[in-house]
């Protein structure tokens, strides 16, 4: 057929606009566009392939939907990427901050050297303790010379007995172990006493600016660290026969290995405050120790002694006399006397301080419930601490004591403690341990100048 005889075709642009409008109208009505009323053959001037279709509103709508989906997906990925970058940036900042704090702490509080890294020791050894090497202090001009010597690795390691680790340093046997279980018990006791004393570490009126503080038998050193934070301008020293303290401490805090029952070689009249807590099964001669405390306190300085004591008490008669707990208390009293460290020594603290010449002697006796039987919230909390303490620390308290004084084996000790622990859990037994706090002042305090 000759193209010249064909009728003129409608413009392509006009056809597409009409088709798009028609399709849009169908979309608004919710129906699909139908076939054209009069099919038309494609015009040769329409430049398209045989396998393609004309542009339609339906395909345009699909393409727009895909574009919108791609745009939303891209935005979501961008947000996730930004959040990831922020998270990485936050983690990096946190890591750098932690690293900076650790570095600063390392610079401020260098780790204490081990016994093998301390100053060179002479060949002379202290007769009372073969595990000690006395340090040559001839070149040390410090008046406040330390009574602590370089120790051998054997003394630092301690010794195993009945499956527990005990201190290998000191002239007398200490009844308590120094292993991890005992350290955890001491940390729990530190919290318990803080609650018992109404969030106070001590009761003595030492003032706001003590310069030198000494803790005798400091254990894990938590009291020393807390007091060093309370008084940042003071020197706070903790001594113990067991190296159980932390390496990271405030810069005004120190720990030393020392036997407080041996003669002190520190400068006399040098401490503003001397503190001791829970020296159970450790001190054989309290009057002698108190004399050393007196001589090393400054005039007007304070001493405070805190200690749990026995026998166990019950005010309302709820604890049966034939109970395992009562039997345990009686055995504890007799065996500690035989061991040389009576458990009722704290009841005599005040008299010993007065006999030595201390003034302003004050004595306070608190009650530590054996479990959470009291009604008051404070004592219920303290009782919960004590029940947890006795559940895990009872064996360490008596295994060496009963072995030395009564010849019991570890198996016999643990078999006996089964019934004791059962009684300790019984909240119908309203029993408690006395906790004695005594503080006193050395005479000779200079009057504060007026004006």
TrEMBL record:
Query: InterPro entries per the record?
Result: SAM-dependent_MTases_sf
Question: According to the lineage, what is the superkingdom?
Answer: Eukaryota
**Where are the compositionally biased (Basic and acidic residues) regions?**
40-51, 65-83, 123-135
Where along the sequence do coiled-coil regions lie? none
A Pfam family found in this protein is: Methyltransf_23
- Feature: compositional bias, Polar residues: 53-63
Renumbered to this chain, the Acidic residues biased-composition regions fall at: 136-145
Region Disordered: start-end pairs: 1-90, 113-150
PANTHER family attached to this UniProt entry: LAEA-LIKE, PUTATIVE (AFU_ORTHOLOGUE AFUA_8G01930)-RELATED (PTHR43591:SF31), METHYLTRANSFERASE (PTHR43591)
Q: Record's family?
A: Belongs to the methyltransferase superfamily. LaeA methyltransferase family.
- What this protein is called in its record is Methyltransferase
Q: What is the lineage of its organism?
A: Eukaryota, Fungi, Dikarya, Ascomycota, Pezizomycotina
């Amino acid at each position: 057929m000759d193209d010249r005889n064909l009728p003129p075709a409608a413009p392509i642009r006009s056809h597409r606009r009409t088709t798009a409008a028609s399709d849009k109208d169908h979309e608004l009505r919710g129906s699909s566009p139908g076939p054209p009323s009069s099919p038309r053959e494609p015009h040769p001037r329409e430049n398209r392939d045989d396998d393609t279709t004309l542009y339609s509103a339906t395909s345009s709508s699909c393409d727009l939907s895909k574009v919108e989906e791609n745009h939303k997906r891209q935005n979501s990925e961008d947000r996730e990427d930004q959040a990831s970058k922020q998270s990485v940036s936050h983690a990096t900042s946190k890591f750098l901050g932690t690293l900076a704090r650790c570095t600063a702490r390392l610079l401020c509080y260098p780790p204490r050297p081990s016994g093998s890294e301390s100053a060179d020791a002479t060949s002379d050894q202290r007769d009372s303790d073969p595990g000690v090497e006395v340090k040559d202090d001839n070149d040390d001009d410090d008046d406040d010379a330390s009574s602590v010597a370089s120790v051998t690795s054997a003394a630092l390691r301690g010794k195993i007995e009945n499956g527990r680790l005990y201190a290998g340093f000191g002239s007398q046997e200490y009844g308590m172990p120094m292993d991890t279980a005992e350290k955890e018990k001491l940390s729990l006791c530190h919290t318990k006493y803080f609650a018992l004393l109404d969030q106070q570490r001590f009761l003595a009126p030492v003032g706001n600016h003590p310069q030198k503080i000494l803790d005798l038998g400091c254990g894990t050193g938590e009291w020393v660290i807390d007091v060093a934070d309370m008084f940042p301008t003071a020197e706070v020293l903790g001594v113990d026969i067991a190296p159980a303290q932390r390496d990271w401490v405030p810069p005004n805090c120190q720990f030393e290995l020392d036997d407080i029952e041996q003669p002190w070689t520190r400068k006399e009249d040098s401490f503003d405050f001397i503190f001791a807590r829970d020296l159970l099964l450790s001190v054989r001669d309290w009057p002698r120790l108190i004399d050393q405390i007196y001589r090393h306190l400054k005039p007007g300085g304070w001493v405070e002694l805190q200690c749990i004591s026995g026998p166990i008490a019950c005010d309302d008669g709820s604890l049966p006399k034939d109970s395992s707990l009562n039997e345990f208390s009686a055995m504890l009293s007799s065996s500690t006397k035989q061991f040389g460290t009576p458990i009722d020594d704290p009841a005599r603290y005040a008299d010993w301080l007065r006999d030595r010449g201390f003034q302003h002697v004050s004595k306070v006796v608190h009650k530590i419930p054996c479990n959470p039987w009291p009604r008051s919230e404070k004592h219920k909390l303290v009782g919960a601490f004590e029940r947890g303490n006795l559940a895990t620390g009872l064996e360490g308290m008596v295994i060496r004591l009963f072995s030395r004084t009564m010849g019991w084996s570890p198996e016999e000790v643990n078999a006996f403690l089964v019934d004791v622990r059962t009684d300790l859990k019984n909240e119908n037994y309203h029993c408690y341990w006395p906790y004695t706090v005594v503080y006193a002042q050395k005479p000779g305090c200079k009057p504060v100048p007026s004006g």
